[in-house]
Automatic annotation (TrEMBL):
ARM repeats lie at residues 289-333. The lineage of its organism: Eukaryota, Metazoa, Chordata, Craniata, Vertebrata. GO terms for cellular component: cytosol; endoplasmic reticulum; mitochondrion. This is GDS1B protein. It comes from Polypterus senegalus. Keywords: Cytoplasm, Endoplasmic reticulum, Mitochondrion. The gene is Rap1gds1b.
Amino acid sequence: MHVLLADVLKLQFVDSGVPEALTEMIKRLQEQSKDLPEAPDLCSIRSASKVLVTLLLGDEPMQKCFRDGTGQLYEVILSWLQEDNTDLQRSGALAIANFARNDNNCTRMVAQGAVFQILALLERHVKDGDVAVQHAALSALRNLAIPAANKVQMLEDGLLERIRMLLCSDMPPVQFKLLGMLRMMVDGQEEAAAVLGTDQALLSKITEWCGSQEHAGVRGEANRLLAALIRHSRAPEVVYAVIQANGGKHLISMARSEHVIMQNEALIALAIASAVTIETVEGSFKDGGIVPTLQQMLDDPMVASEVKFSALGLVCSLANSDELREEMIAQGLPENLTNICNHSNAKLASQANVALGILNGTVTDPAS
């Protein structure tokens, strides 16, 4: 009820011309600050721009202000990205992120060149820049990258090359947003995943952040990006590069996460890596404890069925390695699989039967 009431009020404010009044006030304050540079009213500019961003949180008010990319207010907000005032820069980027809440708006903004303006803003803040501005700009880029067509266009516009400048950032909020934006960029994009996944400098930084003990969010996003590079590229070259960067142990650790989505992403990436080039991964996976991890996962009644299903797929891929197959048998994995063959989940039981047959050599892995 409170949310609905707030949205109604936002719409009333927009219909009453509040956004236009706020932008006029900001413009007037900026002009006054030019005449009196020693006493600019920064607090009022900051407050007015924040109110404007808040109004755009409502879907209908946002669409009225955007007007399919032709709204006067939208054009004013775009101009804020080029201002020297960091409050306006930040509010401008946050407003772009709010406008980018549906595919049509995202497509229109990318076509109009909004990405170039956001990148230019980021480049102004690479060294000793405003973290809040960087955070807001990366949020806008991530939202703009959601439509598949935009991913292609943004890649063609050179986004990946220009965004690498932020790898030097030592600020966790920027690292977190950068990783999330890169993960969105490679989602469903085989070529982009292959390019990023063979960039040793990038992989070195990702694996460094995979081990971050200071910021759980950064650690989680880094691991998810590492898994995404393998999942979306399915390329032996990417698997090799990830293993060379010591990424194997991080994927195995990710499979032990308390979050189901992260467990699944890790297990699928590990299975793909094993399927496309088992020779590359077997040593790293063995040293990383992949077999004990699988055994614990399959034996634990609290592990979700969907996670166990992915784990069974990984067993099938790992069986292509004689060394790992022998370890799985020696560790008693066939007994774990036999127990799952009687599971009430028919799909899970069937997959366990297949995995058991592959492990025992009576069934050939259809993926091999």
